[in-house]
Amino acid sequence: MKIINAAAGQPDSPGERKLIQTLTSQLDDTYTLFRGVLLPRATDTIDAVLVGPSGVLVIAVYEYEGTYACEGDEWFHSPDGGQSWQSTTENPVKQVLYDHIQLEACLKREGVREVFFEKAVVFPNARTHVSPRRPAARLLHLKALKRYAHELSGQTYLTLAQVDNIIAVLTKTARITATRPRPSSPAPRLPARRTSGTLTTGLLVLGIVLLCISAVCFASALALLLQGQL
Predict the structure, then answer these.
(1) 206 & 142 share domain
(2) Are 114 and 211 contained in the same domain?
(3) Full residue range of the structural domain in which residue 229 is found
(4) Under a CB-based contact definition with an 8 Å cutoff, are residues 23 and 54 in contact?
(5) For the segment 71-101, what is each residue's pLDDT rounded down to a tens digit?
(6) At CA 54, angle to CA 51 and CA 59, rounded to 5?
(7) Residue 87: in which H helix or E strand, if any?
(8) How far apart, in whole angstroms, are the C-alpha atoms of residue 218 and residue 117?
């Protein structure tokens, strides 16, 4: 399996390294894994995108340990091991669904259509326990991911030309991302422009004209006043 690190300068997390090792053990060089993909119109990176003859697999890596439950696209956490449940602000299922929508839109803008997509949340931490109920995306621990990757190696939904087109788009996106300024870096301020000489001259002339008009008005008023006193 080929690996392209789109997140330049960012080291793999322990969970991402386990993800890469698991996929590499099952997939040949007809598959390419992109790590840390930031699409042109997106604000968050996609953890990983796997491209190959079986289609495109959008992956979110969830490394937190604990007890969780998933119902559809809703995500819950149990702080007491399953006795009580509460919603969480971080939802890996909705995240991977959003990543899929963004990636599909990006490919369509580049003219790549009719792509077979799959979505998966991968749990590399053995202390992560998830109870799924009709999940909106695949929920895979490493052993399940290994079995799933083995199944993918025998599936063909895309031609080699389609695979190459998708890889070309994501490779171009990775290059764009590498050269894109980071949001945290403020844009350089442009030096203040000096007032042009033409504008200054115009204001000076206008001031003189207004002064002359005021003088004429004052003189006229003074003349009328004097005539009234005669």
Answers:
(1) no
(2) no
(3) 202-230
(4) no
(5) 999 999 999 988 999 988 899 999 999 999 9
(6) 50
(7) strand 86-87
(8) 84
